Amino acid sequence: MSSPANAIRFRLPGNRWQCSFHAPLRARPNLLLKRNPASAQIFTAPDTASAVEDLRLQFHRFWMTIRCASDPVLLSAIFLFVIPCLALGQASSSPNCKLIALPPPLATFGGPATVTHGYTELGLGVGGYGELPPSPCDHGGGTDWFVRWRRGLSERIDLGFDVLADNQSDNSLGVTAKVAVRYQVNQGFRLEGGLGAADEGDGRSVNADLAATMGTRDPDRTWNYYTSLRFAGSHGCINPLCAGWLGLSAPSPPGAILPLGVIGSSARISENASFIMETGLGGVFSREHPGPGIYLHLSFGLLFNVGKHR
After folding, report:
1. Among 113, 111, 102, 109, residue whose Cα is nearest residue 125
2. Fewer beta carbons within 10 angstroms: which end of the chain, N or C?
3. d(CA 170, CA 282)
């Protein structure tokens, strides 16, 4: 059966799927997905199409190309930057240049393992971070002291908390903490999520994060390596735990979304202790800032697994 004259068919290089739709110009396109044929015809506008109709068809073809793309790099870019920008919308005309509301502790601090059932993990670390918002806001940051506690609930799941004390560059002090659960999908891959709250003197925040960690786990090697992708957010407020019914109101630190990529390494010191080093780079997306900024992360310290060699 021959294709209708107004059928749009095209093939994306390097992909297994072909996208096509039959598009009466005044009707909504009907999207179909089918296997790639041996050859693909490129749409040619009918001789009777007007310039406006050609422009509309070109827009439809562009939209189909986006919908059919399966490149993971594009998907990662959407996850890390496009979605936060769309979610936050246009920046405030009067930017709030305070440091952002404290996010949850962002340190991955170790590879993809979870704590074995019945045993405990303790981490002690120091580090720092930097916020680089666009002009007219000034750059800022701080130094951190970090504590982690985890308890194994099963062979794949552990539960615990992270606490971070923050000495900020504007001479204010803050504390942020979260309760987190981690799930080991397989030997080299782990998922985790956490909920928390923070107090930094001139304001408070509630926060949360999700992360995926991949890495090596060879107990016979001195060095193992890992990487993680973390998506965190914080909401600034003045009331404890952002409880609006308390009736308090004052300027609060700006809330933000932070996608963060981390690479790190662990060096085995003994059967139950490792030295951790990691660094990260991400973005800062806040409705109250004039535009997207850059987030820098650095931490190192010691990780102990009480009672069991990992």
Report:
1. 109
2. N
3. 22
Burial class of residue 37 (count of CB atoms within 10 Å of its CB; 0-12, 13-18, 19+): exposed
CA dist 160 to 90, 193, 195, 274, Å? 37, 11, 11, 19
By the 10 Å C-beta count (0-12 exposed, 13-18 middle, 19+ buried), 240 is classed as exposed
How far is C-alpha 67 from the chain's CA centre? Answer: 22
CATH topology of domain 120-306: Porin (2.40.160)
Residue 13 neighbours by CB distance under 10 Å? 4
Mind listing the pLDDT tens digit for each residue in 187-216? 999 999 999 999 886 778 899 999 999 999
Rounded CA-CA distance 244/257 in Å is: 22
The DSSP bridge partners found for residue 129 are: 142, 297
Domain boundaries, the chain: 7-70, 120-306
Please state which of the ranges 54-58, 74-78, 93-97 shows the lowest mean pLDDT: 74-78
Residues in the chain: 310
State which amino acid sits at residue 204: R
- Is residue 56 classed as helix, strand or coil in its secondary structure? helix
pLDDT band of 28, cuts 50, 70, 90 = very low
- Partnered with residue 304 across adjacent β-strands are 122, 273
d(CA 127, CA 267): 17
Q: What is the pTM for the complete model shown?
A: 0.68
CA distance 84 to 232: 11
